[in-house]
Amino acid sequence: SAAQPAQAIAKVEAEDLAAAVQGIDVFNLGRTPNFEPRRAAGIPTAIAAAEAPLLFFPIRSGPESPVRDWLSSLGGLVEGFEQKTLRQWKRAHPGHRSFTVVRHPLLRAHVAFRRKIVDGQANDLRRILINGFKAELQAPGQPFATPDAERAAFLIFLNYCRLAVAGQTGQRVDPSLASQTAILQGFAGFQPMDLVIREDRLAEGLGFLASETGVAPPAAIAADLARDALVSVLDETLEAAAAEAYARDYMGLGFDPWRG
To answer: Is 225 helix (H, G, I), strand (E, B) or coil?
Structure first.
């Protein structure tokens, strides 16, 4: 009868509609939530060359020293900016280039761990790790007795970083612990970067900036001892913990597992 084809068509349409509705994420529940606090633009940390149109926004626990040395060789440094003075510098240096350097999240976390925890730059955080997370730490400035002891403490630190980046500690997130993605977004709140260089291509990146602005490239970039320090404790557990703590950086910036 004529009713049967009509019923069949209605059934197919209802099934298609149900399938389409299932694919709609009305409340955006399929998106991984991000609770990391927003970062400021970091203008006071910016470093400019006094006589070259180059402006560097360092990321804490990143490779700052070789860039600073290069800019200093170009006639000295200008630091301690605020928005007004930074705009004045930019007007005085037409054709300027702003840039930053990103580091592998695991290496960056280990540098932060060595500086903030092992060297004792962050006493409050040391106490939190000892009392709240049962980390076994040496006295500030003293090395660990064994690589295993450092590996265990560093793993606890990475777990703390995971909670901090997720906004679950109730504490201010130190710039050395924040994700590089959040820091880059903070920079972009004032201005986008002309260039984001990866540490493993630092020489090429600085050479490109030199050719862009007509200045001499760095003569050489010294080997970073931080890499050897990480090699001494590295294992798959640490890599997995870093990937969980800094998932935004691994995914958004395309980092692979660290290979030294």
So the answer is: helix
